[in-house]
Amino acid sequence: MLPSILSTLIFIICLALIFSERLNRTIAALAAAVMMVAVGMIFGFYTEEQAVSNIDFNTIGLLFGMMILVALLEPTGFFQYLAVMVGKLSRGEPVRLLLLFGTITTLVSMFLDNVTTVVLIAPVTILICEILGLSSQPYLMAEALLSDTGGVATLVGDPPNVLIGSAAGITFVDFLTHSLPIVIVVWLVALGMLRYIFRKELAQTPTNLDALAKLKPANVLKDAKTARKIILVTLGAVFFFLLEEVLHIRPALVALGAASVALVWIRPSIQETLKRIQWDVLVFFAALFVVIGGMQAAGVLQGLASLIAQVKDLPPVLLGLILLWIVAVLSAVVDNVPITIALIPVIQGLGSTGIPIAPLWWALVFGAGFGGNGTIIGSTANIVVASMSEKTQTPITPRVWNRSGLPVMLGTCLVASVLYVILFSFISQ
Amino acid sequence: MNISDCMKRNVISISANATVQMAAKTLISNHIGTLPIVDEEKRLIGLVRLRDLINLAMPDFVNLVDHIDFVTDFGAVENHKLDPDILFIPLTKIMKEPVSVDETSGLIRAAALFLDHQMSDLPVVDREAHLVGIASYVDIGLALMSNWDLTE
What percent of chain A has pLDDT over 70? Predict the structure, then answer.
């Protein structure tokens, strides 16, 4: 009993520190991981070997490979180029601007990191809005909310998907058949809601349309040749992701392979490239794997699973819906990565009691993905967009978020729930 | 040759309790780009540069974009009005740590400081940190080049 209590305590303190923003999440997780191993060794429930073997290489490798591609693409100016292009294409018409900015961030962040996409596209968005004399609020909100929503559609779109895919053996193709159709509907609903919520801002008349026409996208794209190479390699990676079941190669190998091909083809300064890797994210994941592995070794998660399994009579649909909403609400207030990593063994535990868990994985995917839209701190993209908008005259405050992001989160989760019920028999396969 | 041979000895400076408005007026009326800030005993305690004042007038979001060269026309941004409150910000709020050289300092050291800090004027102080002169990039650069053999 003591190991369970101690390991749970370490996990909860770690989450609390992250939530209170007293400590950076990576530092908190790293400290908790060391603590877990030390306590585990003293009380005999966890060893160093176990701790290391709990770090899921497939997740870390996939994230690392994709990060290298992004790190190579970032300095070419490709992201900003896209933003300027769609800005021009909109011809300054607010609703079209919303649609185009939303679409482009979604499409890019389905394959590449959400945060990088938003970090690079949002400043251009702000600038274009300011040139046109428009409030940047609706467009920035669309970028944060829609990129997070779109990320749910693919295996590589969002870190929780990578985790769940790796743990449950869900492939890139499974995501396209099971998640993408639902995400398309949910995405359209989110867009429609944004259109309605920001109807006042979107009715503003843009000024200086000729200034918009005079923007020179070619000046942003500093290295078109490199950008083209990386996009080709990324498309190649997607092609191999699709063939996972045929060729039996895990996504991590594909991503690392793509990264290697790109590195050999482009031959950049490797120090500069590696500097742009989000090491804090990788360390955060590795540390959390060790922490959660400790809880598992102490028997906490199995206990939790058997506790849930007592409500076996619950119809599976209802169990899935409950999971979806619990995860969504949790993801709105805390990081969805620790929640996902913690729930994976619980769901696996439920599976061993005979409960069909295929639909539960999708509930976890949707809850973790759509839930983050609920609050200004729900996802990194949200935080980035809000802090950038502080530099404008129409900052995105928590109040603005509560009247736009929160309803969108509730709306998308509701629509996802309805689709989940309707498509339940398909999702269960 | 050292810095005291090429510096200007008549330095226009401003006191620490001045405001942005007073600093701006001084810069304009003397057509200069750097104002050393001094205490009652003329000791150098800070610097305010044209760049710092212009930065106050620039909308914050402009700095979010790395390279601005794709924008040929800033449209509505050009019409942004300066917030009048900015003029009454005390200089102590925006002043920078002073970068200065001792009056006995050589020219290479002075030139290196210019390149390092991207400044346009370098205050010169005596041993007790009293402001005794100021040298511009042109002053120092030309003094350095006076050693070059340009007769060919």
Answer: 100
Backbone angles phi, psi at B81, to 5 degrees: -90, 145
Residue type for position A4? S
How much is the ipTM here?
A: 0.74
Cβ atoms of residues A382 and A372 within 8 Å: yes
Give the Cα-Cα-Cα angle A339, A343, A346 (nearest 5 degrees): 160
The pLDDT of residue A8: 92
φ, ψ for residue A167, nearest 5 deg: -75, -35
* Residue B85 Cα distances to B17, B18, B76, angstroms: 16, 14, 21
What stretch of H or E contains A215? Answer: none
DSSP state string for A357-406:
-HHHHHHHHHHHHHHGGGSTTSSHHHHHHHHHHTTSSS---HHHHHHHHH
B65 confidence band (pLDDT: 50, 70, 90): confident
List of chain A residues whose C-beta atoms are within 8 Å of the C-beta of residue B74: 130-131, 211
Q: What integer pLDDT is reported at residue A312 of this predicted model?
A: 66
Sign of CA dihedral A55, A174, A411, A381: positive
Name the interface residues of A facing B (CB cutoff 8 Å). Answer: 77, 80, 84, 122-124, 126-127, 130-133, 207-208, 210-212, 214-220, 222, 388, 390-392
Three-state DSSP class for residue A280? helix
**How big is the CA angle at B53 (ends B48 and B59), to the nearest 5 degrees?**
145
Of B71, B72, B79, B83, which to mutate for an interface test with A (greatest number of A Cβ within 10 Å)? B71
Domains and CATH numbers, chain B: 3-145 (3.10.580.10)
Residues A316, A330: contact at Cβ < 8 Å?
A: no
**DSSP three-state, residue A303:** helix
- pTM of this prediction exceeds 0.90: no
Q: Give B-chain residues touching A208 at CB under 8 angstroms.
A: 73, 75-76
Round to whole Å and give the CA distance between B108 and A190. 62
Q: What's the rounded mean pLDDT across residues A278-299?
A: 92
